[in-house]
Design goal:
By secondary structure, the protein is of the alpha/beta class. The chain has 15 helices and 11 strands. α5 runs antiparallel to α13. The structure holds pyridoxal-5'-phosphate. It holds the Pfam family Pyridoxal_deC.
């Protein structure tokens, strides 16, 4: 065993000149627990002070102002101690970070985080378990397994289910579609009775997802060697939900064209609209055509613990499900999982290495999570959800999600009653896509620009952050409500600002006066 310097030992002259800089003093071990404790407390203290004081979700700084400040840091000249580095960090990061905990952060699918999960994050990175093998994680493996079983239970899967934590919905979707692809290739070979090469099968494979589905589906198709053209965009109805008649027609068309649908992806909570595809109808069609059903519940998974659980009915008929705990379970990034109804499907990601998880182990069966994952070294993200459930329980998380769903409905009522705005759909979850739309004859393109201008000004002038998207070729603004602390008055204030900025833009751009309301 190597010698570990104890704090009581005299420092060498070189160390005395710059005590904190001794590289070995920076290793977390038996001898350094006090400096670990104080450095972490210092870091946590900075964040706590910042969060207490922060008055805006975003400072509004421009990339051109911030980039040179970060470029000016000399990475070849270390500061020697954590206090100095944290002082610097206040300037280059904390001052201008985007604060999701702030009630006027209304933009993307980023949630404020719950304290037990943040404690979990601190614990898991310090212990630094790697969840690929039992011999790198110990109990972490079983904590993760319990949480997968718990999630499977919430979905309504039976004891054959399994799954794995991943880095995010993108990876969860990729792994689900990889398993679906390999299952389809296997079936095509069996049915043809010929030893077909992959190159002969892949061009025939298709993935069906609604036109409102997430772009990670197309990315997965590309990564899986199918090409993004392999994704068939199934038409949505006016509520931005997959139209089952259109899905039926596409499945029949694939069949008559000799194409092989490897999966239908139903989205339970689209990123823009929070709309939930009709899961029972999709499940019926998948059953009828013998196609793998994947449910992308990256956003909608919060319904698993909500009073609105019924919105996910038929999710238990899926072959695979993506859940993003870092979206609607108030967990810090990253925390996601992919689940399968039949654990046998995970064999498609099982590969062996003699040094890690030998195929023919001489020992009794060893629980190695790497057998179920497309990652190797892997974070113990499950610990955050574990501590969250142990502190506040599933119902506590559900209550928070229910609150933002209710708030979104209230905002929808306010928007539909407000003649300054049009809103696209009534939310099932917690997003609203809307735009300032004056009735004074401004062209649609001018209104596009006015909305985008209002969004920019909102961030730079008022420190509130909203998102933007495009619907039927026109620019819209988007609220994603995930913070129960966001009040109606926060939202109404932001709407007034948007209207004010957009009116100002139109008045400057066109010389027209805004309509008198
Ligand atoms: C966010 C999202 C994803 C991607 O998840 P990441 O965690 O960002 O990788 C996939 N699908 C849907 C519907 C999403 O909203």
């Amino acid at each position: 065993m190597s010698h570990v310097p104890q704090p009581s030992e005299p420092l060498s002259p070189a160390d005395a000149a710059s005590p904190g800089a001794h590289p070995r003093s920076q290793l977390l071990n038996q001898a350094t627990t006090e400096s670990y404790r104080s450095a972490v407390v210092d870091g946590v203290g900075r964040v706590a002070d910042r969060i207490r004081r922060v008055e805006r979700a975003f400072s509004g700084i421009q990339p051109g102002e911030l980039e040179p400040e970060i470029a000016a840091v000399d990475l070849e000249r270390p500061l020697g101690d954590a206090t100095a580095a944290l002082d610097e960090l206040e300037e280059v990061y904390l001052r201008d970070a985007v604060y999701f905990h702030h009630p006027r952060y209304l933009a993307h699918l980023n949630c404020p985080v719950v304290i037990p999960a943040v404690v979990g994050e601190a614990v898991l990175s310090a212990v630094n378990s790697s969840l690929d093998t039992w011999d790198q994680s110990g109990g972490g493996t079983f904590i993760e397994r319990r949480l997968i079983a718990w999630t499977a239970g919430r979905i309504g899967f039976d004891g054959r289910a399994d799954g794995i934590f991943t880095s995010g919905g993108t990876q969860s979707n990729l792994q689900a579609l990889q398993m679906a692809r390999d299952e389809a290739c296997h079936r095509v070979r069996e049915e043809s009775g010929a030893p077909l090469r992959n190159a002969e099968i892949l061009p025939r494979l298709r993935i069906l997802a609604s036109e409102c589905g997430h772009f990670s589906i197309a990315k997965s198709a590309a990564l899986l060697g199918l090409g993004q053209e392999a994704v068939i965009a199934v038409e949505c109805d006016v509520d931005m939900r997959m139209n089952p008649k259109a899905l039926a027609a596409e499945l029949a068309r694939c069949d008559s064209a000799g194409l092989v649908p490897i999966a239908v992806v139903a989205t339970a909570g689209t990123t823009d609209f929070g709309s939930i595809d009709p899961l029972p109808a999709v499940a019926d069609l998948c059953e009828r055509w013998g196609v793998w059903m994947h449910v992308d519940a990256a956003y909608g998974c919060g319904l698993l613990v909500s009073r609105d659980r019924g919105l996910l009915d038929a999710i238990e008929r899926a072959d695979s499900v993506t859940v993003d705990f870092h979206k609607s379970f108030f967990q810090p990034v990253s925390s996601s999982a992919v689940l399968v109804r039949d654990r046998a499907m995970l064999r498609h990601v099982t590969f062996h290495a003699d040094y890690l998880n030998p195929a023919h182990s001489t020992e009794r069966s060893i629980p190695n999570q790497v057998d179920k994952s497309i990652q190797t070294t892997r974070r113990f993200d499950a610990l955050k959800l574990w501590l969250t459930l142990r502190v506040m329980g599933a119902e506590g998380i559900g209550e928070l999600f229910d609150e933002v769903i209710s708030r979104a409905d209230e905002v929808w009522h306010a928007l539909t009653a407000d003649r300054r705005f049009t809103v696209v759909t009534r939310p099932q979850l917690s997003t609203l896509v809307f735009r300032y739309e004056p009735r004074n004859g401004a062209s649609a393109a001018e209104v596009d620009r006015a909305n985008l201008y209002a969004r920019d000004l909102l961030s730079t002038e008022a420190g509130a952050v909203v998102a933007a998207t495009v619907v039927r070729g026109r620019h819209y603004l988007k609220f994603t409500l995930l913070n129960p602390e966001t009040s109606m008055s926060d939202v109404l204030h932001v709407l007034d600002l948007i209207a004010e900025y957009a009116e100002k833009y139109l008045a400057d751009a066109t010389g027209r006066q805004p309509a008198p309301w």
